[in-house]
Amino acid sequence: MFSKMRGAQSSARHWLWQLRRDEAGAATIEFCLLFPLVFSIFLMFVELSMVQFYRVALERGTETAARAVRLNTDNAPTPEQLKTVVCDAAFILSECLTYTRVGLERIDPATWVSTGGSSADADCYDQADPDSPPRNFDSGSSNDLVLMRTCKLFRPYFPTTLLGSRLAKHNNGFYAIVTTTVLVMEPTEEIS
Q1: Within 10 A of 142 (CB to CB), how many other CB atoms are there?
Q2: Distance CA 191, CA 41 (A)
Q3: Cα(175)–Cα(164) distance, rounded to whole angstroms?
């Protein structure tokens, strides 16, 4: 009886020894261990490039709208007009007119503080109250220093990847991209 057990142990040892020396399938195991990590890093870079692409497009739209505001001091634009200018200049942004907010506020040049007493946060679209008016909209007058902030909500492409899960969520899974610029309203000439 002991000889049968000894023979079974011997054959089991022999089988384990062969298994340990056998290198077939080693590349498959390495691939299975490393592929999820490498693929998630790849998806993170795709997400990051899309965020940067949208940020640059929004920045272009904001600068175009700021120029329109700066040169048209006689006709103060409405929030909807500014949003249209931003979205026309940043034509690549999907659902731009729906999920974009533009805010203008005068700033005291001596203290760099808003004269309207608004918060430091940009005014973003609120899905719970889509008809709420913009929080800060004071286009100023001749020679005023004006801060312009544009906020656009985006839905991440890969919300569970390394970058997508770390982005600050706004509401319902969206994340916000905010661009800011400062402009001085052009002086208006009075005709006598």
Answers
A1: 13
A2: 62
A3: 9
